[in-house]
Amino acid sequence: MSEISLNGRCLVAGSAQGSLLYADIGLSFWGGVEPFTGEVIDRHHPLSGQIITGCVLAIPSGRGSCTGSSVLLELILNGHAPAALVFERVEDILTLGVLIAEQMFGHSIPVVSLGEAGFAALRDVQFARVEDGRVTCFDSLPPQLHATVSPTRSNTAIQSRITLTEMDRGFLDGAYGKAAQVAMGIILRMAELQGATELLDITQAHIDGCIYTGPASLRFARQLVDWGARVRVPTTLNSISVDKRRWRELGVDPALGEPASQLGDAYLDMGAKVSFTCAPYLLDSAPQLGEQIVWAESNAVVYANSVIGARTLKYPDYLDICIALTGRAPKIGCHLAPQRHATLRIDVPYMAELDDSFYPLLGYHIGLLCGAEIPVVCGLEHRAPTLDDLKAFGAAFATTSAAPMFHIAGVTPEATNAELALGGHPPAKTLRIEEIDLLHSWRELNSAQTPQVDAVTLGNPHFSVSECATLAQLCHGLRKHSKVAVVITCGRATLESAQRAGYVATLEAFGVQFVTDTCWCMLAEPVIPPAAKTLMTNSGKYAHYAPGLVGRNVHFASLAECVDSACTGLASGRLPVWLHAAEQKEALVHV
Fold this sequence. Notes:
By secondary structure, the chain is α/β, with parallel strands linked by helices. It contains 20 helices and 22 strands. A hairpin with a 2-residue loop joins strand 7 and strand 8 (134-138). Helix 1 crosses helix 2 (92-105), helix 9 packs across helix 12 and helix 12 crosses helix 18. The N and C termini lie far apart (51 Å).
C-alpha cells in the first residue's frame, strides 16, 4: 500500500479516517448540505448528490451562508457529519461549528488546513487518515483506526497569545455569568485560529443563529438562556424559519413552526430586538461608515462592509451571539483597514440597456471567480447602481464566494477609484469578464426546462420599501393569473412603511401575499404551493439555492419579467437586451 503524508495546520485536534471526498470549489453547508442525511443538495456543485457522512471531506473552504456552522453542528450531533474536514486554508464558519460541538456538547471531528500545494495533492486520493495536523493518503482502505477527539484546549494556553483587558479576564473567570464565560472561551479559540493578538469593542450585533436548522440550534440557544445570557450591545435578529405571528395561519407544520418560534423567543429572552430580517441595513439602526460591528448573515455582512463601509468579519452562526454577550470581537480581518483592500481586479465590459437582473447576475458570476479574495470591480463607474442593485449584487456575490466584501470603483465608499480599493498596490491578478461569460451564468441560474411559472418568489434578501414602490408601479391596475402565487418576504418594519405609503394596497390588489419574519431560504410548502413545479425570481441568491432547498427549478429574470409571468403563467424566455450581443457571438462561434 502506497502512502503519502501531508503536514498542515491543526484547527481542531483528533483522528479519523475514511474515503476521501474532494472538490476544488467551496461548499456552503446551508443550502448545500441536507442536515439530516448528509447529502450535498447544492445542484450547482460538483459534489451534488454525494453523501458526506463518514467521509474525509476535502474542500478549499466553505462559501455562502454564515449558517454553515449551524448545519455542521446538527450533522455532528445527529451522526451524519463527515469523519474529518480538510481545507486549503483556515475556514472560520465550518470550524466554528465543530468548536461549538466540542466545547458545549462534547462531540467533535478533526479539522486541518493544508495550504494550496498540500490540498491540491489530494485531488486523486481515494482514502485518507487525519491525525491532528497530518493527513495520510492511501490508495486502498487503510487498517482500522479508532477515531479520537483530543481534549479541549485550555483558555490558559490561548491567553498567552492574546492580550486581554481586565474585563476580558473577568468574562473568563465567570464574573459576568456562565454564558458570558463560555462565550469568551469560544471567542478566544476563534481569535487564535484567525491569528488575532487582541480583541476590540463592537457597537452592535446581528444574529444569524436564530435560524432553526434542527434540534441542535434550539438546544444551543436554550443552554445559553439557562446560563443567564444577556446581550451587552444592541442586537438585531435575522430572519427566522417561520412567520412568527402567522405560521399556523399559513399552514406550516407544527413540527417546524413550534421549535422555530421557540428559537426566536430564546434570542429575544437574551435581550435581542424584534427585527427578524435578513436585511438589517434597511433598519433605522443600520451602522455608519467605519463603525465596528458584528454581523452574521452573508448578504448583510457583504452589504455592511461594501456598501455602508462598516467593519465586520463574515461571522459564523453562534460566534455572533458569543460576541453579542461580551461586546468583544477578534481584532482581525475586515475590522482592520489594510485587510479590507482588494487583491483582485475584475474588469466588466460596457453593456447597453441594463435592467435590474444585471446586478444579481454579475454578483453571482464575480463570486464564482473570487473564492475568498476581495475584488475591485471596474467598468461600472458611470452606471450609478441603486442601493437595491447593490443589495442584489451583494447577496448573489455572497452566495458563490467566501469573501466578506467587494469594492466597485467609483461606487462604493472605499473605492473612489481602483487604486484606493487596492491600497496603492498592484492587483495580484486581473480578470476580464466577457459578455459570453455572463450568458453562461444566466443559463446556470435559469434551471427551468419549461416556460410554465407556478409561483413568483420575491424578497431574497428581504424586499425594501423602494422595491415595493417599483413593483407597485409595475403592476398597478393589473391582476395576476389565478394559478400563479406571488409572494414577497420582507421585514416587519418594511411592511409597515410600505403600508403607510399605499404600496401594500396596490400589491395586494394585484394578488401579492406578504410574509414577514422569514425569507425564501427557509420557506417551503405550503407557502410554496405543493402543486407548484416551477418558480420565478429576480434573486440570484434564490435562483441558486431553490433547486436544492425546495426541489423546484427556477426562471431567473428582471422584476418586470416577473410581473409579466405572474399575469400569464408563462416565462417569455427572452434574454435581456444586454445579453443579446453575447448570444450573437455564441451563434457565430457555433457556425
